Amino acid sequence: MNDSEEKRLVRRVQRLGDRGAADALVRGRYDEIFRFVRRQSPDGDSALDITQEVFIGFLRTIRHYDPRKAGLRTWLYRIAANKLTDFYRSRGRTLAAEPLELADTEPVDGRDFTERVAEGELAARVSDYVGNEPPDTQRIFRLHVWGERTFAEIAEILRLPESGVKTKYYRLIARLRKEFSDYE
Which is deepest, 62, 87, 119, 172, by most CB within 10 Å? Predict the structure, then answer.
């Protein structure tokens, strides 16, 4: 489905409450959002539940969606990142941020490490660790590692400066490297 088709369907849902158009929008993005959520969920059932919550939230708030401010895909990733953060918060995670040293803001080459993080046993452990981070940091990490979004895209999705997105990401990567050094 192209952007103009999505915009047309969104207008039909917003103006007419067209259920067929809403269904087409959900079907058009469901698999992509499910994959994003599944890569970060402890199991398939949780991923299905979270993805369902993403689309319920999407349909409940679609009347407030403005395609001039963000693309539909961007908006759905924002909702998904928020639902994932809520999921880990509800599992009893604390969200207190650790004090950071200035040296933690230096970019590090996290590519090899983040590739290993994205799959396997390490993914579950890292996901739990990231669940203790402040919500913005969680969203940035999830969107970059599991959503494969660029820093510019993440900045747009979260409405944050790109430099702030990069700083938070690289600080977290430095902490993850230290915490999971046995996997290096």
Answer: 172
Residues 2-15, buried b or exposed e (16+ Cβ, 10 A)?
eeeebeebbebbbe
CATH number of 3-90: 1.10.1740.10
Find out whether 76 and 106 touch, Cβ atoms under 8 Å: no
Pick the CATH number of 102-183 from 1.10.357, 3.90.550, 3.30.70, 1.10.10: 1.10.10
Per-residue pLDDT at 165 exceeds 50: yes
CA distance 20 to 70: 23
Buried b (16+ CB within 10 A) or exposed e, 166-180: bbbbbbbbbbbeeeb
Tens digits of residue pLDDT in 48-103: 999 999 999 999 999 998 888 888 998 999 899 889 888 888 876 433 333 333 23
Torsion of CA 54, 116, 148, 75, to 10 degrees: 20
Q: Which two tokens stand for residue 49?
A: 């539940």
Q: How do the domains of the chain map onto residue ranges? A: 3-90, 102-183
